[in-house]
Amino acid sequence: MKRVVLMTLRGVGLAILAILGLSLGSVVRLYVIPKVIADFSEEPAAATEDASGKKVAYWTSPMNPGVVSLSPGKGPMGMKLVPVYADQMGSGNSVHLGAPQIQNLGLRLAKAEKVVSTESLRSTGIVAYAEPTITDVTLKISGWIESQAVNYVGQRVSKGETLFTFYSPELVSTQEAFLLGEKQQEQGGDSLLGAASPSGDVLPAGERLEYWDVPQKEIEAIRELGEPKKVVAFESPADGWIVEKPSFAGSYVPMGQRLYRIADLSKVWVYVPLYQSQLSMVSVGDEATLTLAYHPNRSWKGPVTYIYPEIDETTRQVQVRLEFDNPELLLRPGMDADVTFGARPSDDRVLVPRDAVLVTGETRDGPDGQVKLGTAFVRVGPTSFEGRTVTWGADTDDQRLEITSGVKPGEQVVVTGVFGLNSEMRRRQASLQLVEQMLKQKGEEPEKKNSAE
């Protein structure tokens, strides 16, 4: 009984070893590196045809396709070598397969489709101040800032609100002339006390104060006071936020120097850089939609207002300007924003399933920058496939890739078994190279196969 059990265990062990051997053999069959065998041939001469008259490219082991020989015989494991026919080898990046190989690789095909559709252009932009809403506060006379009621950047101001008080000897003397003129006018005399204008005419002192942007209520206060004020208050000329304040209390201010910059954020601009190839999809007046990452449920709509005429020499991009209303002040200058331009009819596109492209990670220079490369296998015969380098672009929502070159509409591409087919093609290329080296060592020229076959 013990002997029967031992024999049974031995039989099971041998069976397991046999199964493992078959599995390893199938793995080696795809990925083993071809090697030359020598001195195993039973026939002294290299055979180029078998008994049926078909041309033989080389001989190999049925259990180890990495074994390559120019003559029939037995392999290292004692098994009889089998022929690999020339019409099975293909040429270049093409490969011919038998029905069993196609079944073992599990190849499945799909057709490259030509799609005519509307498409939207998506890009990113930068929120900026709308230039027409920016106001600079300057003075038309020189003097000193006595005090500042608005004294930090980011402070909101209203039109007519006091910004600062200002002292200037020229401003004081003009007030004196203004009051003297007012007094003479009351007495029925000439009130044209003032200074000469650029045209040579004499300007009344009151008019000069207005030209210097002295607020009307300050002029009325001077008139009521009846004497010059040492400092005069100046007001904000617009509603908005203080975005720049290069001045401080006590500082001397020459004529024309900027004291404040005020921007109204109720309207903003957004700058979007686009490549030259994308400009055909955008026109002035087109509506665009803006979204923010931190406000995913909100969107803003605004028009394309301007496309700048110059191209950035570094990025090779063109700036497109959009305008958006910002009543809730959620769009802040400097923010990144996602912009989608309105859908419009697009050029015909070739789409293939995502799995049909073996992405290599390689790129090359194109007219609009770097293009992405990959490999796709196209059916060129009933059981023949050609590996092609393709360039691809957009990844669609339905798991398809846009092919920009390498595959034509209507061609069938491999979508399942791509990795196995790629390995088989490279193994055969390596075997052919080895055969060519062996023939050259024997002093024979390898037969050139016509790629058109």
UniProtKB/TrEMBL annotation:
<dbReference type="InterPro" id="IPR058792">
    <property type="entry name" value="Beta-barrel_RND_2"/>
</dbReference>
<dbReference type="Pfam" id="PF25919">
    <property type="entry name" value="BSH_CusB"/>
</dbReference>
<dbReference type="GO" id="GO:0016020">
    <property type="term" value="C:membrane"/>
</dbReference>
<dbReference type="GO" id="GO:0015679">
    <property type="term" value="P:plasma membrane copper ion transport"/>
</dbReference>
<dbReference type="InterPro" id="IPR045800">
    <property type="entry name" value="HMBD"/>
</dbReference>
<dbReference type="GO" id="GO:0046914">
    <property type="term" value="F:transition metal ion binding"/>
</dbReference>
<dbReference type="Pfam" id="PF19335">
    <property type="entry name" value="HMBD"/>
</dbReference>
<dbReference type="GO" id="GO:0030288">
    <property type="term" value="C:outer membrane-bounded periplasmic space"/>
</dbReference>
<keyword id="KW-0813">Transport</keyword>
<feature type="domain" description="CusB-like barrel-sandwich hybrid">
    <location>
        <begin position="137"/>
        <end position="263"/>
    </location>
</feature>
<feature type="domain" description="CusB-like beta-barrel">
    <location>
        <begin position="267"/>
        <end position="343"/>
    </location>
</feature>
<dbReference type="InterPro" id="IPR006143">
    <property type="entry name" value="RND_pump_MFP"/>
</dbReference>
<dbReference type="InterPro" id="IPR051909">
    <property type="entry name" value="MFP_Cation_Efflux"/>
</dbReference>
<dbReference type="GO" id="GO:0060003">
    <property type="term" value="P:copper ion export"/>
</dbReference>
<dbReference type="InterPro" id="IPR058790">
    <property type="entry name" value="BSH_CusB"/>
</dbReference>
<dbReference type="Pfam" id="PF25954">
    <property type="entry name" value="Beta-barrel_RND_2"/>
</dbReference>
<dbReference type="GO" id="GO:0022857">
    <property type="term" value="F:transmembrane transporter activity"/>
</dbReference>
<protein>
    <submittedName>
        <fullName>Cation efflux system protein CusB</fullName>
    </submittedName>
</protein>
<comment type="similarity">
    <text>Belongs to the membrane fusion protein (MFP) (TC 8.A.1) family.</text>
</comment>
<feature type="domain" description="Heavy metal binding">
    <location>
        <begin position="58"/>
        <end position="84"/>
    </location>
</feature>
